[in-house]
Amino acid sequence: MELQLGLPLFYFLLLGFAILMYVLLDGFDLGIGILYPWFNSEAEHDHLMRSVSHVWDGNETWLVFGGVILFGAFPAAYASIASLLYLPIMLMLIGLIFRGVAFEYRFKSQRSKIWWNRAFAIGSSSAAFCQGLMLGVLVQGVDSNSLQTSSLQWLTPFSLFTGLAVMAGYALLGCTYLTMKSRGALQQKAARYGQRLLLFVMLAMLLVSLWTLYSQAPIRSRWFGGSYSVLLMLLPLTAVIAARLLFRDLGRVQRQFAAATDINSRHESRPFWLAATLFLLAFAGLVVGLYPYLLPRQLSFYAAAAPDSSLAFMLPGIVIFLPLILAYTLWGYHIFRGKVEDYEEGY
Amino acid sequence: MELDAALLSRLQFAFTVSFHIIFPSITIGLATLIAIWEGLWLKTQNPLYLQLAKFWIKPFAITFGMGVVSGIVLSYEFGTNFSEFSRLTGAVIGPLMAYEVLTAFFLEAGFLGIMLFGWQRVGPKLHFFATVVVAIGTWISAFWIIAANSWMHTPAGHIVVDGVFQVESWWQVIFNPSMPYRFSHMLLAAFITATFVVLATSAWQLRHSEHKAMARKGLSMTLWLALVLTPLQAFVGDLHGLNVKQHQPVKLAAMEGIWPERESGAPLLLFAIPDRQAEKNHFEIGIPKLASLILTHDADGELMGLKAVPADERPNVAVVFFSFRLMVGIGLLMILVAVAGAYLRWRGTLYHSRGFLTLCSYLAPSGILAVLAGWYVVEVGRQPWLVQGLVRTIDVVSPLPPERVLLSLTLFVITYSLLFAVYLYFMHKLIKKGPPSLEQLQQQRIGVKAAGYAVALAKQLKPAQE
Fold it and tell me: N vs C: which end of chain A shows fewer Cβ within 10 Å?
């Protein structure tokens, strides 16, 4: 049993890691796109775009990685999830296309700039919304007969709400990233929006959690049915503490600016990591409820797993290349460290 | 008309993959050329090489961006539109694509940021390194995706358990019988595509722009490359054709327009109109016995024809037949241009031959057209199979409501048409704008005019003041 589950479990965790990396990394650059309409001047827009133009491509690669891990390690799940969520996936892809090319064309355009601004904002927002929608579907579950893909089960008030919640969450990540990468008025704006978004995100997390516990008996019994319940309570508790610290840091950045003192660089960068922690905790909470299913209560990861010959084949690639990828990705971020103004250079 | 989800899904995949393949075909070769120029600049300090690299990096960036966004679509389309195919073959195809992401996509994305935006942030050697890594990343990517694609043409190394494919030998899966030929053919095609894009642009610049020295350098280099690569491609293509004859004789019969079960002394058809209903060609114009001679090295050699298999196992002959002629025709034209260029160079009139330069400048899309035509030969020629002889396309399409596929297909057609127009507009704009001038480059090198220079200087000065 142990051995048989070993490889599929490894890939289940790897899939979780890929999704988490994607949500954190593309989360902040999609978030920048969502925030875009709330910044008005061309200078601000330039700054927003510049802050992520060198990383969006790598960030989006985690989405492809998640997709191919699902494809290679859990083909049955990839097949049914992808065709079930046909329309949200297609709309997400088209959103990603528009916001992706906006990076390339906006800096080379004059008259059409406004259209690339729109493409970036609408594309980012719709991609984030679709991702939230899909999250909602996975949380609420689907009927077993709904794999007949003509159903529109993915369209419910709950999934629409999670769509909005994910948009807000990404926007929050974007705000904290901007707080780290900018100065002056722009930074202040980001910190201010960040505080408001944080309140909404916490409220949304609370509502989604309560709704899930209320409507999904298996998830309720998982959270409250065992001796480990006390340990699980650490998740929401830590989230509240992280949110409290995050709110305070964003407030400090504003107060220090108002008092015309030097802004403590720790208070500038810590919000991003706190926001990332919130995402991590929310994700952990999600996994607690869903484990071991890829498609809730229908397809578990071990039922969907590819044969060992395939799982074993990918293993050396992952063990060797994933640390390398993380290393050079980190190096890339290091090269473009500091505020956006300091590495202002086109190609 | 009754909507057919299967047909719509196939149309959508064909459309999105055709659109995508345009961009990697250019970037694989262009990344390599930029890396070569940057390397030559570091070695010789000749600023013309830097000018070439800096000029082409912008078209490269927008082409790469288009490739990225249109490629993400494909990685999900297997599951959305061909769910049963994904379930059956996921254990074979999926891991190959996982390796593509692990060894190529992350690599390209990770170093692209430095290649495009890092001129001032890293030293010239490290920048060169980043460019080389991006170029190598594009080759690795091609390797894995061609391995997966080739397996669908000449499957090997697998077993079928309960109708689902499993792998017995990964070596045989990756290096399946057609893989080495397809990979060499595709990689050469990509190099040639980029070569002709640069060749055409240089020829145009030589006549219409002020950067004549750079244009001359670009033209000269790409003509030498074309002289080597295009005949080599003809040779590799011939080997690939022999491989098709051995493993996919029906596809070869469609390429050559051969109908009888067996035909000895088959002519090489220059033109014909294949008729699937009548199972014969109309208006044949051919060179007697040449097809047999090329493919069997014997003028009376025997070739298998389309009628050797039932009608429902034959591809759309006309598409394969004409696409093949278009690809070969373009290839021959390219060889001709390369040879003519060499002759003019020997005569010493290369840079002044207006007619030749004009001809060259019209050849910018020639490589792309040849790649697309070749792609249709390969993919349409395999139909009705998705995995040759094992999985029929029609059996593995997602059971989607047709209206939904029609909606997504419509969205893709609108989006991609718009983007393609925009892409051409910006390519045109960038090429017209031309490279940074030599003086500008010189100042950038010293750092005086470099953006970000003042900030870097201020940073250096700060500790000194304290």
Answer: N
What secondary structure letter does DSSP report for A338? S
pLDDT digits (tens, 9 = 90+) for B74-130: 988 998 999 889 999 999 999 999 999 999 999 999 899 889 888 888 888 999 999
The letter for the amino acid at B406 is L
Between positions 100 and 119 of A, the ones with CB within 8 A of B are 100-101, 103-105, 108-109
B275 in any annotated domain: no
The C-alpha angle B185, B189, B190, rounded to 5 degrees, equals: 125
In a domain, B81, yes or no: yes
| Mutate: best of B13, B56, B83, partner A, most A CBs <10 A | B83
Q: In chain B, which residues have their Cβ closer than 8 Å to the Cβ of A10?
A: none
State pLDDT tens for residues A214-260: 888 888 888 887 777 888 888 999 999 999 999 999 999 898 888 88
Sorted by sequence, the CB contacts under 8 Å of residue A213 that are 6+ apart come out as: A219, A220, A223
How many Å apart are CA B329 and CA B333, to the nearest integer? Answer: 6
Residue of A nearest to B58 (CA): A347
Chain B CB contacts of A118 under 8 Å are none
B334 contact partners, CB below 8 Å, separation of at least 6: B192, B196, B226, B230, B363, B366, B367, B370
| Contact state of A75 with B94 under an 8 Å Cβ cutoff | yes
CA distances from A197 to A136, B20, B23 (A): 20, 38, 39
**Domain assignment present for B281:** no
Domain boundaries, chain A: 2-343
B292 lies in a domain? no
Distance separating alpha carbons of residues B146 and B150, to the nearest angstrom = 6
Number of compact structural domains in chain B: 1
Residue-range definition of the domain harbouring residue B102: 5-256+313-465
